[in-house]
Write a structure and sequence with these properties.
Number of domains: 2
Largest sheet: 6 strands, mixed
Shape: elongated
Order of helices and strands: HHEEEEEHEHEEEEEHEEEHEEHEHEEH
Structural class: alpha+beta
Bound molecules: zinc ion
Mean pLDDT: 95
CATH topology of the largest domain: Aminopeptidase
CATH architecture of the largest domain: 3-Layer(aba) Sandwich
CATH class of the largest domain: Alpha Beta
Length: 391
């Protein structure tokens, strides 16, 4: 533990517990953002509560807090909302009590990701205590209550709001749990994209005994699906595992034995590398469908483009801090599902590093209190290095 860790008066374990005690299951805030704002305000942060709404989605409360007005500006992004507890009887502790047992902090959000938010707040407090008035840059918290939900009234709208105010971000660290089993083993520098596709093959219905009078869409659908599962999109790229394509459903719904149906449909999901954008994936699919020919409709919906923050100053700063504190060299990974970093990447370089994700979204979500202390040290080291780098 760093010698200054107790001098700032902000203990990352205590703040983690206070956050866990707020029942902030999406879309409810449960007082969580108020707890954070009350920790940040005495340090000099100016806090903005941002409520957004949209049709067919719940209203969401978000928190943007910034300290300082100068550059460079380092942003920490995350979420105070948590997933539901699930089966309460599967928990050995109250999921909202913030209890410590056998050196572990139990509670929904301990890993994903109230613990990381508390660690960053504690790191900022220590960083400021060391610098006193000599600090000329800016540090901000971009905290949504809508990460585990539809993600409509959260990070996307906060970023637009910030842009309209003239806020400029130079770097962003997302505190999602990135480590599979051990703190320090992995950070995320990008994510694969995800595209959902509905393929509807249109034919002409008819009697099975008179196929020359019909056009069987099932036969063409089978050929189209064979073509896209035979060919590979790519073999992976420098920082990405190969793109993958999965057929998730094939539907005809024909109850008869003697009718050629008029339509056949399939659903497909593609997880794609930085070799493609979603339009490129769509072109790749259409090329193969067109070779089979005939009439078809394709409805494509992108849930996230692939992105990569090329290894550079930010990833080097984070990796070096992780190594200095833990002795481990983090892998620069793009694995896993998507995160709000997919929105932030349009504004500034973004990487993700947080706690160990092993118990996230499960019963008995928990975190060794030693990891919470270590993550606060890592975040402090990141701030030290980022703001002392020559520019
Ligand atoms: Zn999360």
């Amino acid at each position: 533990m760093s010698p200054s860790s107790n001098s700032s008066g902000l203990d990352p374990l205590e703040l983690s517990q206070a956050l866990i005690r707020c029942e902030s299951v999406t879309p409810i805030d449960g007082g969580a953002q108020g707890v954070l704002a009350r920790a940040l305000t005495p340090m000099g942060f100016v806090c903005h509560t941002l409520s957004f709404s949209a049709p067919d989605t719940p209203d969401i409360t978000n928190l943007y807090a910034r300290l300082g007005t100068g550059a460079p500006h380092f942003c920490f992004a995350g979420h105070t909302d948590v997933v539901p507890v699930g089966d309460r009887t599967a928990w050995s502790a109250d999921p909202f009590a913030g209890e410590v047992k056998n050196g572990q902090l139990y509670g929904r959000g301990a890993a994903d990701m109230k613990g990381a938010i508390a660690c960053f707040a504690a790191a900022v407090a220590r960083f400021l205590a060391k610098r006193e008035k000599a600090f000329a840059g800016s540090i901000s918290f971009l905290i949504t209550g809508d990460e585990e939900g539809p993600a409509v009234n959260g990070t996307v709208k906060m970023l637009e709001w910030a842009k309209q105010r003239g806020e400029v971000f130079d770097a962003c660290l997302v505190g999602e749990p990135t480590n599979p089993t051990t703190l320090g083993e992995m950070m995320k520098v990008g994510r694969r994209g995800s595209l959902n596709v509905r393929l509807i093959v249109n034919g002409v219905a008819g009697h099975v005994a008179y196929p020359h009078l019909a056009d069987n869409p099932c036969h063409r659908l089978v050929e189209m699906l064979a073509a896209i599962t035979r060919d590979r999109l790519d073999e992976g790229t420098e920082h990405f595992q190969p793109s993958t394509l999965q057929i998730s459903s094939i539907d005809v719904g024909n109850p008869t034995t003697n009718v050629i149906p008029a339509k056949a449909e399939a659903r497909i999901n593609v997880r794609f590398t930085d070799a493609y954008d979603s339009k490129g994936v769509e072109r790749w699919l259409r090329e193969r469908f067109d070779r089979v020919g005939g009439n078809y409709d394709l409805v494509a919906q992108v849930s996230g483009e692939s992105f990569l923050t090329p290894p550079g100053e930010l990833s080097r700063t984070v990796a070096a801090a992780v190594t200095r504190v833990t002795g481990r060299t983090p892998e620069l990974s793009t694995s896993g599902g998507t995160s709000d970093a997919r929105f932030i990447k349009n504004y500034c370089p973004v990487v993700e590093f947080g706690l160990v994700g092993e118990t996230m979204h499960k019963a008995d979500e928990r975190m060794p209190i030693a990891d919470i202390a270590t993550l606060a040290d890592i975040y402090e080291a990141i701030l030290d290095d980022f703001f002392s780098a020559p520019r």
